[in-house]
Write a structure and sequence with these properties.
By secondary structure, the chain is mainly α. It has 2 domains: about 120 residues, Tyrosine recombinase, N-terminal domain (DNA polymerase, domain 1, Orthogonal Bundle); about 170 residues, Orthogonal Bundle (hpI Integrase, Chain A), CATH 1.10.443.10. It has 15 helices and 3 strands. A hairpin with a 4-residue loop joins strand 1 and strand 2. Helix 6 packs antiparallel against helix 7.
Length: about 350
């Protein structure tokens, strides 16, 4: 009797609803399989790291869920669907930079679908990305970075310095000296060091390799860690990772974040990366050099630091151009130096 009632419900007035739920479930299953294939493409063919793949998956699942509410799927989405998704994000207080990242993720997904001939048109065409790059990333003053390095340096120079103290100082020096991403520093291996030429070989996004020069302070800190700190942490294990935990395992990105926060409560590894770029531009470095150092695939990503270069250009112009307006104090100082 119960089976007959359920069957009758499926064929009666509620039949359309049940069939719709079954179709949505099937679509969700198809979308899940398709997203898994795309993640395999990202990992194998594009060489993205697991954390990046997880972020892509989260953004695409969010988009798929939005489409489900619009009675559409990833394969039937239209330009209005993508525009509506972006508007939905804005209405829920998502920042422009996050919206731009999600749109970039969706663009990459549909580019893959087009190449695989699963769709005939790209719904992200002619959709403008929010101008999030105009917002300058947060960086630390030079004095604050110097204070952080001095704090870990004091612990590393102590007579009874532990392997962890030597490791933390070396990591902090390297994060700031080379502008490394947190994922890049945990992926470093001992054979990636080129200390004789004051550089390290870094594998960035998409497994792209680059040579990053570092300064003398970073070289000395890394040498001390490799000679004294790493053998203590290694505990007779076979590990290729450069930076190890107290248990002799490769460090995680969370451990690096915690280390930086323990030195400065409002700092982060990414802020040290931006501080490296900001301070270089303030001291006269050109954007092309900063792009190569940070491993940006597109110079447009580095253009966020353009206003710093312009500010320096204005300062140099005021100080040295004969027709520029200089302050009376600066002119007096120059005359006094001339005397």
């Amino acid at each position: 009797m119960l089976a007959r009632e359920v069957r009758g419900l499926a064929l009666g007035r509620g039949g359309r609803k049940n069939r719709g739920m079954a179709l949505a479930s099937a679509n969700a299953g198809n979308s899940g399989a398709m997203l898994r294939e795309y993640l395999t493409h990202l990992r194998v063919e594009r060489g993205l790291r697991p954390l990046s793949c997880e972020a892509y998956l989260h953004d695409l699942e969010m988009f798929a869920e939005f489409l489900e509410g619009e009675n559409k799927t990833l394969l039937t989405a239209e330009q209005e669907s993508v525009s509506g998704f972006m508007q939905h994000l804005r209405e829920h207080g998502v920042q422009s930079r996050s919206i731009a990242r999600k749109l970039s993720c969706v663009r990459g997904f549909y580019k893959w679908l087009l190449m695989d001939k699963r769709v005939t048109r790209d719904p992200t065409v002619n959709i403008e990305s929010p101008a999030s790059w105009l917002v300058l990333p947060k960086s630390l003053p030079e004095s604050e970075v110097a204070e952080m390095l001095e704090r870990t340096g004091v612990a590393a120079r102590a007579a009874n310095a532990s392997g962890a103290a030597l490791r933390d100082h070396a990591m902090l020096e390297l994060l700031y000296a080379g502008g490394l991403r947190v994922g890049e520093i945990v992926a470093l291996r001992q054979e990636d060091l080129r200390l004789e030429t004051a550089s390290v070989q870094v594998r960035g996004k998409g497994d792209k390799e680059r040579i990053v020069p570092i300064g003398r302070s970073a070289v000395e800190a890394i040498e001390t860690y490799v000679q004294r700190g790493r053998p203590e942490l290694l505990k007779a294990r076979m590990q290729r990772a450069l930076f190890l935990s107290v248990r002799g395992n490769p460090l995680t990105t969370q451990c690096v974040w915690q280390m930086v926060r323990s030195v400065n409560s409002h700092a982060s590894p990414h802020m040290l990366r931006h501080s490296c770029a900001t301070h270089m531009v303030e001291h006269g470095a050109d954007l092309r050099t900063v792009q190569i150092l940070l491993g940006h695939a597109d110079i447009a990503t580095t253009q966020v630091y353009t206003h710093l270069a312009i500010d320096r250009l204005k300062t140099v112009h005021r100080m040295h151009h004969p027709r520029a307006t200089r302050s009376a104090a600066a002119s007096a100082a120059e005359r006094e130096m001339a005397l």
